[in-house]
Amino acid sequence: MVGAAKRFADRSDVVFVVNGSGSGRAAVSEAAEGLDNIVLVGLQPKERLAEVLATGDIHTVLLRRGLARSSVPSKMYSILAAGRPCLASVDDGTEVARTLATADAGCSVPPEDLDAFCAALEPLLDDESRRRRMGENGRRFVESWASPAAVAASYEALFDELVGRS
């Protein structure tokens, strides 16, 4: 994120906000020293999650190489539910990359590849209608697949199928 902030430092319309207080915060803070377009905010209480998600125009899921093969950060679903596009830095072929592509709710690039990340970010920054479309697509996807109602319907269909086989 700091590398992207450096690349887009000349754009007055772009501000990177990093939420959290994880173990890497000190390193991020040090690397961001002197940058006016990156803001570090501590971990926010869950009561403010909707506000945090509504604030950003584009959200990110950033995972080191190999991590997305065994996990899907829950924040991806929160981002999509908030109607915001997601730019993910994850391994190709992982659930995160497949979900964003299937839902047309964002895009993914290889992890730890600053050039690819910035190349994917710039067109999103410059195309508000694309961001809006991707956000709407993500919201629809979550409502139809990952919402409590959609999950309950899937379980009901599974139970009906299992009972029918007895």
In the predicted model, the low-confidence regions spanning at least 5 consecutive residues are: none
* SS content category: alpha/beta
- Based on Cα principal axes, name the global outline: elongated
Mean pLDDT, rounded to whole units? Answer: 92
Tell me the helix content: 40-55%
How many β-strands, per DSSP?
A: 5
Amino-to-carboxy terminus distance: 54 Å
Main beta sheet: 3 strands, parallel
Query: Strands of the biggest beta sheet: in what spatial order?
Result: 3-4-5
Tally of individual helices: 8
What share of residues are in beta strands? Answer: 5-15%
Please trace the helix and strand order, writing H or E for each element. HEHEHEHEHEHHH
Give Rg in angstroms: 18 Å
What does the model show?
The radius of gyration is 18 Å and the shape is elongated. The model has no long low-confidence stretch (mean pLDDT 92). The protein is built from eight helices and five strands. Helix 4 (75-81) crosses helix 7 (128-146). It is α/β, with parallel strands linked by helices and 166 residues long. The longest helix is centred in the C-terminal third of the chain and has 19 residues, at 128-146. Strand 1 (16-19), helix 2 (25-31) and strand 2 (38-41) form a beta-alpha-beta unit. Strands 3-4-5 form a three-stranded parallel sheet, with helices on both faces. Strands 1-2 form a two-stranded parallel sheet.
